[in-house]
Design goal:
Layout: H1 2-16, H2 20-33, H3 35-44, E1 73-78, H4 83-100, E2 104-109, H5 114-118, E3 124-126, H6 140-155, E4 159-162, H7 170-178
Parallel strand pairs: 1-2, 1-4, 2-3
């Protein structure tokens, strides 16, 4: 019984402090939405190794609220996609994300169209394109393999989707929709 009384007593005293309601309504939501606060907490308190997604990868600007930091991270590879199709594919990803509320995309592309991903607040990585690869000491495949390994480790990706030159296919849409949390 004593274990339950003490937290209740503390909360009763906290509610009497001037400014408590203001802090609860304004400061707490701002702290939850703050990328800086999340990064500080993430660095101060080591994330448990059993946790499969880091807390500092944002879900973008379309999803918000408590729990979005626990959604699986999906690396979306747009390698070889024509530059004029990138915006269309990212728009489609955003639509799928809103409809399923089941994933946080990290977009990897080889064309400098980062604005398409950043418009939704998605993290984006740019790879050097294969044509005109300037380094003879390393093949482009080795470069991509190493870079993608770093991307998967950094973002702790749960899944990956390869988008072909025609955009998102039926299989990719089904995979992304299947990541929605079970209710």
């Amino acid at each position: 019984m004593a274990d339950r009384r003490k937290p209740r007593r503390v909360m009763r005293h906290m509610r009497r402090i001037p400014g408590y309601r203001y802090a609860r309504r304004t400061v707490v939501p701002r702290l939850r939405d703050s990328a800086t606060a999340r990064a500080v907490v993430h660095r101060l308190f080591a994330v448990d190794a059993k946790q499969h997604t880091p807390l500092d990868v944002t879900a973008g600007r379309l999803l918000a609220g408590v729990g979005t930091e626990r959604l699986p991270v999906v690396v979306v590879l747009l390698l070889g996609l024509p530059p004029q199709r990138v915006r269309e594919v990212v728009d489609e990803l955003a639509e799928l994300q809103v409809l399923s509320a089941g994933f946080r995309p990290v977009i990897v592309m080889d064309v400098p169209e980062l604005a398409a991903a950043r418009a939704y607040g998605y993290p984006a990585e740019l790879l050097l394109p294969a044509d005109g690869w300037p380094y003879e000491g390393q093949s482009w495949d080795d470069y991509v393999r190493t870079t993608l390994g770093t991307v998967f480790a950094t973002y702790r990706s749960t899944a990956s989707v390869v988008v072909g030159p025609d955009g998102l296919g039926r299989t990719e849409r089904l995979l992304l929709a299947s990541l929605a949390p079970r209710r």
